Amino acid sequence: MGTKIPIFTTRAHVFQIDPSTKKNWVPASKQAVTVSYFYDSTRNSYRIISVDGAKVIINSTITPNMTFTKTSQKFGQWADSRANTVFGLGFSSEQQLTKFAEKFQEVKEAAKLARDRSQEKIETSSNHSQESGRETPSSTRASSINGTDDEKASHGGSADAHLKSENDKLKIALAQSSSNVKKWETELQTLRESNARLTSALQESAASVEHWKKQFSECKEENDQLRNKIEELEEQCNEINKEKERNAQLNSRLQELESELQDKELELEDLRKQGEIIPQLMTECESVSQKLQAAEKKNRDLEEKVRTLRTDVEESKQRQNSLKTELKNFLDVLDGKIDELHDFRQGLSKLGVDN
Fold first, then answer.
1. Where is the composition biased (Polar residues) (predicted)?
2. Nearest to 135 by CA among 96, 181, 90
3. Distance between CA atoms of 197 and 186, rounded to whole angstroms?
4. How many helices (H) and strands (E) does the chain have?
């Protein structure tokens, strides 16, 4: 008994097309599940299998006619005509989708090679069966003729024994050949039925392909409409964001104005308080004005006195200068008198010495 050998494994969200609408996707798993490629050595085929708990949600045999289509950056799908459905896989990243698509192409090529080899084996076996069926009667006839010639030639007992042995061998070979012919005829009939089923499946697949092409075209148009709608929504979102920015600026400006208004109100309150003491200030101002006038009058009197004093000082300076001049003259005269007195003393001293 053959085994299923895992080739590639990944994780994705599994979807199936809605059989009633053939447009909407129906989730086949509540969360991301394991999706694997397997090689089935029993049937010499390749499969995509996914199990959610105890439930098999994907069991798709890959054929050379299948195509895996990327419909977005993280989503891909393929149609399975045997299961009469379309499977969709949603991946967590674009890299995982790309790897799955590349592996799908590799497995599809491997499935094509396996199919070609299987057909070659069937054709070879069929040709061998037909050749065996044609050669066996000829050999029997040839042996019979040879046996007749031997009988005519020898007419002995040893020849009869040899012919009997040969006839027994020919009967066994003929029985085996007949058995092989029936076996190959059964296999040929099985292959014809299989080919008929494959032809029917191929026709159904072709019809399904046309259907999916039409559906793909509709989905593409719907995607284009959705893209346009998304672009319009993005433009609206951009306008909304700009409006939000303007509102934020207005709110900030409003807060600034409110803060300025509060400051102005505080200033106004201060001015009001100051306005309450204005009469007292006016009284004080009048008192100060009177004092200022009195002070100005005193200042004028003082200035007059200062001018008078300055005149007196000037006159005093002039008198001092006159006195200084007279004193200088007096000192000069005094110096002359002192010199004369000195000379007189010297003259007296000389007279005393002479006496």
1. 124-147
2. 181
3. 16
4. 3, 8
* CA-based nearest residue to 76, from 24, 11, 10, 15: 15
Angle at 247 between CA 246 and CA 249, to 5 degrees: 65
Please count the other Cβ atoms lying within 10 Å of the Cβ belonging to residue 125: 15
Q: What's the rounded Cα separation, in Å, for the pair 175 and 79?
A: 49
The greatest distance separating any two alpha carbons of the chain, rounded to the nearest whole angstrom, comes to 234
Q: 157-276 vs 94-154: helix axis angle to the nearest 10?
A: 180
The token pair at 347 is 């003259």
Distance CA 60, CA 344 (A): 165
Q: Where are the domains of the chain?
A: 6-120
CA distances from 162 to 138, 147, 175 (A): 20, 9, 20
DSSP string covering 81-122, please? TTTTEEEEEE-SSHHHHHHHHHHHHHHHHHHHHHHHHHHHHH
First-to-final CA distance of the chain: 187
Pick the CATH number of 6-120 from 3.40.190.10, 3.90.1010.10, 2.30.29.30, 3.40.50.10470: 2.30.29.30
